[in-house]
Design a protein that fits this description.
The structure is a homodimer. Chain A is α/β, with parallel strands linked by helices and about 350 residues long. Helices cover about 45% and strands about 20% of the residues of chain A. Chain A has a four-stranded parallel beta sheet with strand order 4-3-5-6, with helices on both faces. Chain A has a three-stranded mixed beta sheet with strand order 1-2-9, covered by helices on one side. A two-stranded antiparallel ribbon of chain A has the order 7-8.
């Protein structure tokens, strides 16, 4: 097992990474505050790992909340089911919520913890690659609104992140690839050497080689922890982690939540950001081709759905959380490994990208 | 106009109290951050004061969100209407929400601001006595759950509280009395001299004498500001402000939100707390009679509804936010002006109070 630390003063917390951690008594336990836990998971994960986790936490009289699986259920309405379960079990302020699942479960369980009785503790136990390398670290929690992704939420840091790499064995291929999108992102925005490593190891990652996956998780978590420690509430550089996300959120909202996986939408978004960065004279054509090739190798889409017209895309992007006065804010690449925030992207270049990167079929 | 300050370091803010403040240009304006405002109000208040406030804020292109009026609408579902309105108007992170109305509007608008795009600014413009003396100050925001009052929420401090005392002219008598319950509370928990003043001035307050109401608002806000400054997130003495509230919340939840006004339920709750404090040997029979007389004089109820049995009362009280491991935590009175937190109230005494203070009809 390896351990990293997210340095946030009084709110600092550890990230544990290794095989078999769900079977390690006292790893989750030591971070439970109070005498009660509530495990939030979904109907896909529950039959796989819930019994094991519950057994470990038996002395905290765990209650379980099993949500439907999918981004389309990341809503205020489904969130209310969590509150109902907590209240029916008379869970008080000293209850600790445990998120067992992927990004959707983590975002919802974390947000429920952020606002239940004005805030209780929670622990992340991510079971998908995407949540292990990205969403479980950093305290962003929330739900979607029909009109915009992640529009309702809170910053609420977990007490610990427990990553059992064995859980990746049951992950569908499509979700493994979706997780790789966020892994590639770290290389693109701040670590060219990591990008090179990823290009050389894509096959091993897709083949679920345990050591390679573990290395990718640790390197990714280290990047995430560094950025979050420097800018917890995204007043500055944390925004760079949103490379591909403004395009990606538009795809997710426009296609209906759940149609595209978050990582798939981010993958296309990164390729679009690369294309736009090239149009602005920053990336070479070779850089763009290299990025597109890596995304494709990771078995991720590289073109935006034809169902969303460029005009609709612009409309969807204008409600992004980074937008200011309706002005779209983008994360682009000055070079591979060097991301920048762009507030004044020429609209002609943006429209050219939206048109060029739209799937012809 | 008088000005008080809530001292919370970087989150400090002013409370302005006086007549005609809604007509004073730049009082609200100076606390708007960003270039856009969203006024949240209800259908009772909108025809009275919305046009005036909108006119003042014209340069911020105000949008308006008009909610139905009543505690029964303080729900996640109605909250979602606020998010929809904000998103439809493309409100970004630099939007300032303005709560124009009573406690329900303030709690909901504040909570919407707390979680919209993970948190934006808000300003309180309370128009009821209850919200002017209590709920608009201190940053408690949230909504109810069917199973428990204020169970979903956040601490989110406003940028300013603007109290136009002229708005009390349109307040229904029943709501004026409800506000007096929270005023009496300050006297009971920390200021015996204030209680004496209230006993002498109840008639003037009920007659809406402007100078007397203004004095009550200022003295009450000063108490609230002091307590909040010392204990923002209620880890200690702020809990004393909940005198009567554990009983009161049980009444509100048990009778169905909206049947009893919050202040009415708190009024009975305070009389019940006084009765229980007497049973524990702390208050004299004379003290209890004095408290009950003042509450009655303020035209507030002094007995719990017969529809809630003592057993049901206990069940409702056990889900209170202050409860720990299902153990009821009560605020009681050691003496008039001296409140205490009681974790180990003998259940025989509590049950005796629930039985004795139940309305026989």
């Amino acid at each position: 097992m390896q351990e990293l630390q997210v340095e946030l003063g009084a709110r600092s917390y550890p990230i544990y990474v290794g095989p078999g951690l769900l079977g390690q008594v006292d790893l989750v336990n030591r971070h439970v505050s109070g005498s009660r836990v509530a495990i939030v998971t979904n109907e896909t994960i529950a039959p796989l790992y819930l019994a094991q986790l519950k057994a470990q936490l038996a002395r905290f009289r765990p209650i379980e909340v099993v949500l439907p699986d999918g981004e389309q259920y990341k809503t205020l309405k489904v969130l209310d089911h969590i509150f109902t379960a907590l209240l029916e079990a008379h869970c008080d302020r000293r209850t600790t919520v445990i998120a067992l699942g992927g990004g959707v479960v983590g975002d919802m369980a974390g947000f429920a913890a952020a606002v239940y009785q004005r805030g209780i503790s929670f622990i992340q136990v991510p079971t998908t690659l995407l949540s292990q390398v990205d969403s479980s670290v950093g305290g962003k929690t929330g739900v979607n609104h029909l009109l915009g992704k992640n529009m309702i939420g809170a910053f609420h840091q977990p007490r610990a992140v427990v990553i059992d790499t064995d859980t990746l064995a049951t992950l569908p291929d499509r979700e493994l690839s979706a997780g790789l999108a966020e892994v590639i992102k770290y290389g693109l925005i701040r670590d060219p050497e990591y990008l090179l490593w990823l290009e050389r190891n894509t096959d091993r990652l897709l083949a679920r080689d345990s050591a390679t996956l573990t290395e990718a998780i640790i390197r990714s978590c280290r990047h995430k922890a560094e950025v979050v420690a420097a800018d917890e509430t995204e007043t500055g550089q944390r925004a760079l982690l949103n490379l591909g996300h403004t395009f990606g959120h538009a795809i997710e909202t426009g296609m209906g939540y759940g149609a595209w996986l978050h990582g798939e939408a981010v993958a296309v978004g990164m390729v679009m950001a690369a294309d736009l960065s090239h149009r602005l004279g920053w990336l070479s054509g070779h850089d763009v081709a290299r990025i597109e090739a890596l995304v494709r190798c990771a078995r991720l889409p590289v073109r935006a759905p034809s169902a969303i017209s460029p005009a609709r895309f612009l409309e969807l992007m204008s409600v992004d959380k980074k937008a200011i006065n309706g002005h779209i804010r983008l994360i682009l690449l000055k070079a591979i490994g060097q991301a920048v925030i762009v507030d004044d992207c020429p609209s002609a270049a943006l429209e050219a990208t939206l048109t060029a990167m739209r799937d012809p079929v």
